[in-house]
Amino acid sequence: MKDDAIVFKGTKEGLYIVLKEEMIFDDIVHELENKIKPSKRFFEGAKIVNFKGKSLTPGEYEELVDILQNQYGMQFLGDYESLCRNDVFPKEDQKDQPIPEPVKQPLGDEEKALFIKGTIRSGQLIKFDGNIVVLGDVNPGAYLEATGSIIVMGNMRGTAHSGTQGDYSTYIAAYKMEPMQLRIGDIINRPPDEKKYKSEVPEMAVVKQGMIIVEPYLVKK
C-alpha cells in the first residue's frame, strides 16, 4: 500500500481524511490502523471534519466513524450528507499541505514533539499539543502555536506562541531571531515597528519577572 493511500489534511476546522478512490474498504480500515495506531497519543482528541475522495456506503461511513471515535478517541464533526455532496472542503483550504507526521515517541513520560522539515510559509498555521521543531525557516506571516516549546533551526521571522495553555516555563529558540511577534503563555513581546530583532548568534526567548526576555541561546563562558 502506498504511503499516500490515506492522507490527513489540516484546516482551521480540523482534519480531513482523504481516501483514494480505488481503495477497497478492508484496505481503508487496515491503512487507518497503520497510520493512527503508532501515534495514538497524538491523534487522541483530534477533530475530524469529514472524509474526502472515495465514495462510501452509509454502513461503511458509520463503521469508520465508530473506529475513529471509540478506538482512537477522535472527535468526528462531519455527516454522511456532506460527504455525498462532495463539498466538505472549503475552497480556501484546497491548497493546504498534508499535516506533518508526528514524531513517534518511546514509552515513558517524555514530551511529544512535532518535527517539520522545510520552510513554513506566509499564511500557514502550525498548531501542536507538545513541542514544535522546525528544520528550516519560518517566513513573515507564518504562525506557530505549541503547548510546549518552539525551536526553529533557521530564520524565525513569523509569529511564535509557546505555552498556549499557560506554561510560562516554555521557550522559543531560533538560529536567527527576527520575529513579527513572540508570545509565551499570555505574555506578548512584539518588536517596535521601526526595529526588528537582529542577532548573529542563536537566541532564546524566555519569561523572566513577568516579561519575555530574548537572550543568546549559548552563554559565553
UniProtKB/TrEMBL annotation:
Family classification: Belongs to the MinC family.
Residue ranges of coiled coil: none
InterPro entries: CAP/MinC_C, MinC, MinC_C_sf, MinC_N, Septum_form_inhib_MinC_C
Keywords: Cell cycle, Cell division, Septation
Gene3D superfamilies, per the entry: 2.160.20.70, 3.30.160.540
Protein name: Probable septum site-determining protein MinC
Every Septum formation inhibitor MinC N-terminal domain range: 6-74
Species the sequence originates in: Lutispora thermophila DSM 19022
Pfam families: MinC_C, MinC_N
Self-association and partners: Interacts with MinD and FtsZ.
